[in-house]
Specification:
The chain has twelve helices and ten strands. By secondary structure, it is an alpha/beta fold. The strands form two sheets. The protein has an eight-stranded parallel β-barrel, surrounded by five helices. The chain has a two-stranded antiparallel sheet with strand order 3-4. The radius of gyration is 20 Å and the shape is globular.
Length: 273
């Protein structure tokens, strides 16, 4: 089984299209299958009490709503993004945070994801289900009852186990929940969306049955966007993908033991036949 690898660009571009295009090329070079963004309508998504709060940014200390507007790409930027993805031979989609964002993204793709923060928004989930052929959802910040209810009305094709702590300590990852989900939803594809430091636990997720793996990516973890702290830098992304592919190659078919070509040669030396 070949794992599908999603590079989560999110908003780690900081509203800079040049940065976004660099992330696309890095994800494609590393061998990722998808690059994913986050699409919001800031005036709908930002709670009223948060809009006027000040946030430190590269543009100075500005109201949070202005920050959200500045890091949001529009039609012209996404036209360039999808054109670049086509040239780099990598697929592209976004997490959708509101219904207008569903309408916007369906111009470009039939794939979308409901982020953990919004799996309790039944109206959005049902709308996205009707809009996109392939729908994903994450399970962060939710207990089992919420996950069950969301799966019922969202009917996603792919369910991601995740922990929404950024970054998440290894002892809180609970990777075995991947196996739980696979047993509970045998007709769904189960994935892992990691926010932890390091690569090993993400690579280990495929041994537990994760068929999709997603990690945030950035140019540098020292960049000013908060998600960069738990993201993977370019060299790390290359190592992550290579490690996953090596594990897949090493797993074999699980059938009765057969000798490899190398062993047949070694047998001639040590056994004489």
């Amino acid at each position: 089984m070949r794992t599908t690898i999603v590079a989560e660009g999110g908003i780690n571009h900081g509203g800079d299209l040049t940065c976004a295009l660099k992330l696309i090329k890095i994800a494609a070079f590393a061998g990722c299958d998808y690059i994913k963004w986050q699409k919001r309508t800031p005036d709908l998504c930002v709670p009223e009490e948060q809009k006027s709060k000040l946030k430190k940014t590269i543009w100075g200390e500005i109201p949070y709503i202005d920050y959200r507007r500045r890091v949001e790409f529009g039609l012209k930027e996404y036209e360039v993004i999808f054109d670049t993805c086509a040239k780099e031979n990598i697929k592209c989609f976004a997490s959708v945070w509101d219904i207008p964002s569903c309408e916007f993204m369906k111009q470009f793709t039939d794939v979308a994801k409901i982020p953990s923060a919004l799996i309790t928004d039944q109206k959005l989930c049902e709308y996205a289900r009707k809009t996109f052929s392939t729908l994903m959802m994450s399970t962060g910040m939710s207990d089992e009852n919420i996950v069950e209810e969301s799966v019922r009305y969202t009917n996603p094709n792919i369910i991601f186990h995740t922990n929404s702590t950024y970054p998440c300590p290894e002892n809180e990852l609970n990777l075995l929940y991947i196996k739980y989900l696979k047993n509970k939803y045998p007709n769904k594809i189960i994935g892992w969306s990691g926010h932890e430091f390091g690569l090993l636990t993400t690579q280990a997720s495929i041994l537990l049955g994760a068929e999709y793996v997603e990690r945030h990516i950035c140019l540098s973890r020292t960049d000013w966007i908060s998600d960069c702290l738990c993201s993977v830098e370019p060299q790390g992304l290359i190592k992550l993908v290579k490690g996953i592919r090596n594990i897949e190659s090493a797993l074999g078919n699980g059938g009765p033991r057969r000798m490899s070509l190398g062993e047949l040669e070694k047998r001639k030396v040590l056994r004489g036949y």
